[in-house]
Amino acid sequence: WRMFWKTYFFLMVAITIAGILLPTFLSLDNSNELSSSDVYEGFVLMPLYIAQLVGLFGYAYARSIATRRSWQLIFGASIAEALWMLYGFISEVSLAEIGTMFVVGLGVTIVPLYLVLFMGLYAYAFRSPELWTKAT
């Protein structure tokens, strides 16, 4: 399983870097520029994304980083951020506007990635007592 988590960690690093860099270079529509609120939101969420990657690193490489309580809080913040993004997506975009296949594609790609992320962060924060007993 460690090899799975190490591979997943590097996949998420690549996806996170692409998610940060691609919107600055690519635009789906020339008239659809990034608004200042989108840029601000990206900078506000950046520490959470970095913390998620650090947590995945700690879990994949069996390293205790910071405290168990901090990872429990980061796990909760990650769930809250995912729900907030889902709410924002549902409230701002209509299904007729983007199409059913796009929503199915998101469900097939993004949902499993998030579920595995949450499983790793949950296991790191709540289900790794041997890791945290070593640290104290």
How is this structure best described in words?
This protein is mostly helical. Helix content is 82%, strand content 0%. The protein is built from 6 helices and no strands. The model has no long low-confidence stretch (mean pLDDT 84).
Salient structural properties:
mainly alpha, 82% helix, 136 residues
Biggest sheet features: none
Alpha-carbon distance between the two ends? 25 Å
Q: Overall mean pLDDT score?
A: 84
Form type: elongated
DSSP summary, beta strand count: 0
Question: What low-confidence regions span 5 or more consecutive residues with pLDDT below 50?
Answer: none
Q: Which class of secondary structure composition applies to the elements? A: mainly alpha
Helix tally equals: 6
Q: Secondary-structure element order, as H and E?
A: HHHHHH
How big a fraction of the residues is strand? under 5%
Classify the helix fraction into a percent range: over 70%
Rg for CA atoms: 17 Å
List the helices and strands and how they pair.
Layout: H1 2-25, H2 36-60, H3 68-92, H4 95-98, H5 100-126, H6 129-135
Helix pairs in contact: 1-2, 2-3, 2-5, 3-5
Summarize the structure.
By secondary structure, this protein is mostly helical. The chain contains six helices and no strands.
